[in-house]
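In full, the data.
>
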Amino acid sequence: MHQYLDLARQILDHGSWQENRTGVRTLSLPGAALRFDLQQGFPAVTTKRLAFKSAIGELVGFLRGARSAADFRALGSKVWDQNANENAQWLVNPYRAGTDDLGPVYGAQWRAWPAYKLLDAGAAAQIADAVDRGYRQVAAFDDDAGRPSVLLYKAIDQLRQCLDTIVSNPADRRILFHGWNWAQIEEMALPPCHLLYQFLPNAAKREISLVLYIRSNDLGLGTPFNLAEGAALLHLVGRLTGYAPRWFSYFVGDAHIYETHVPMLREQLAREPLPAPRLVLSDRIPDYAATGRYEPVWLEKVEPGDFVLENYRHHPPLTAPMAV
């Protein structure tokens, strides 16, 4: 994890103090990149203990489209509790549906993106094409110019669509999903930070890589989680589509360290990184490369216990408060 520590050092040495919505200022650095060869090991931080079970519980919640902190807790992850129930802005938000509600965060966008088409009521060919693609008409009205119009809707499973394309057309350079939805930002406890995931299969080598773009990343608490989740997701997608995970590239718009996390990062920089562990997926998750059977339903069937870190050695745990 030298890449992670190098970035921490860069932020501490060259970052500038910034104010933000939490009231806890940050040392921030614009534009950062990390890159990992997953064939050399899993990118788990070793200069402190990674809360691996919690990170994987959160990932499984995303895969299931969870919208409640209670759902994440049931999977062994409490990371959403504060944003659901202690975030002052969310507590007074009219879209909040009560205790533990998060709104349509991450997984809701990944697995059921709300897609709409507004078409001219007389555009029969366009309407027929949309219906063939799974859209259904939900409204008919005159637009602002008085033209008869129809509104069509469908929920898009972005992640499933990615897997389908990896299997059917691995040369496609549009195999991606994202979580930013301008129409629903105000309905979420926290707008998404890890925004855009792009899968890059190499059919000749039977390898698959992942590029992840994050708009804003808390290096002390968020980055270790996001690295583990992204790498674990790539392993799972590779297993279900018949590819070996290879490169994991990680780009950050605003890379920052909260002022209350500075001592934790300085302590980690004083520690020597240990060898990277290895991620092992349960044999119960079907291996497309071995069986030849494509079973994407396992995106919803995996459990946190299906992901195990082998030979994970780490320094003693370090803690720091989450800025909400």
